Amino acid sequence: VRGAELIGTATYNCLAYHDTAALDRITEAPPLFRVPQFAHNAFARVICALTAQQIIIATQFTTLAPSTNAVLQGWGLTVPQSIRPEILACGINSTCLFNVAQTDNFLPFVIGEIVAFEIFALQVANSGWNDDGNLVYDRCLRRAVPCELNCQGYADIIGYAPVNSPYNVGFGPKNRVFGRERRWEPLLETDGFGFFFRQEHITPHIGFTVQPTVIDEIVMVDPPFYNYKLETNLLLERLRNLTTDIDKQRDVVFYDNKLSVRNLIQTEVRIQFNQSYEQEALFISALDATEADSTISVWRNKVHFDLVRPTTVIQRRSGQIIETYSGNRNAPGPVSVAARNYVPFVRTQPHSEYPSGSACLCKGYQEYTDAFTQGEYGGLVSNLEIPCVPPLCDIPGVVRASDMTDLSNRCGESRLDAGLHFTASVPAGRQACGGIGPKGYELATKLKANSPAFLPENGHFPNSPRPVCGDAGGAH
Length: 476
Hints:
Helix content: 40-55%
Structural class: mainly alpha
Number of helices: 16
Radius of gyration: 24 Å
Number of strands: 8
Strand content: 5-15%
Strand order of the largest sheet: 1-2
Distance between the termini: 35 Å
Largest sheet: 2 strands, antiparallel
Shape: globular
């Protein structure tokens, strides 16, 4: 989520720098400077974006950098991997940065470096995400302090600790969950080669320390008051049904990967409404903001309630025999097995159960996409479909949704079918993120600032000719 937001900002801000009116995604004001008119074209915008993206990846997501750089080199493109000292020395000084860019004839590579620098200075530094691990929580002092060495990006800075240890929870009756047993408990995982480890709750701080972009306040949902015996039986029934329903299995695997979901949405919107590069950059940038605020909202709720996952509840039944998914997707139907061996259809992510993050995110996607396409193109995206192919989806067939509401519903229900959540978690996730999408579209409208770059006649499309040196508005 955070990576998508930073990459989307880079793409859009490169457009804003190479334009007469579009606003900066971070400041929602004009960019630090405008590149001269001769470079206001898609070629310069794309090269700038690829440069800024690669610098962000090389700095923030280092393990991905070699592979993304190899792709660029395969295209015959060599871009900077870091920001030149002259830019760093400027700080956020628009005149100084303009002079550096002018010295290099406003080449899109240098503009990309400036865009990346602005992102690090204004969007990453002191953001509340703790992107660089500049803060670390000191459990003796009971507060976050500056990290001096061996800093870990996105480390917790609020001192979250699980209430339950898997080694000392006193189990009540097998079908009942009392007191602290309701709280999240780290699950045991393995790499399959003898290395076992317990989960750490992923970024528990972000719901409390990150300032949202498009919303003014976070919606807190009501507690679920689960009847755990009833909920467990409903969950096992759904999972048994899943073992013989290949279409639902495909949905579970597909919606488990939000990159796949985003790809489906972005592809269908681009094709159905014949988006230009500029229109798509705008759409994605505000979608990223919507996604980030949705994550922040649902994370505040997750950590507040801190509720136990179904896997823990069921495995506490120990030797009680249950009929459920075997753990083997190729097995024909459910099997009878001791409850201690229970697994859901896909991995349980390392965070608490309530409310559903997926239901929340997909609600944000749905409301934002519908608001954007209705506002910009006068219609809604429909009949979405994408082949389910490895590595992101390994159950042959096609994933389909009649519209964005159907996509949102399928996304949430897939988490119930997979055995990852109890029933109330999905509608609560939708409630937590309801209303964020339209706010995301308000941001898109503001950023666009009535720039002519977003008009179809001025846009760049897949078959558009590349700019020619010397032409008015051409590349340089």
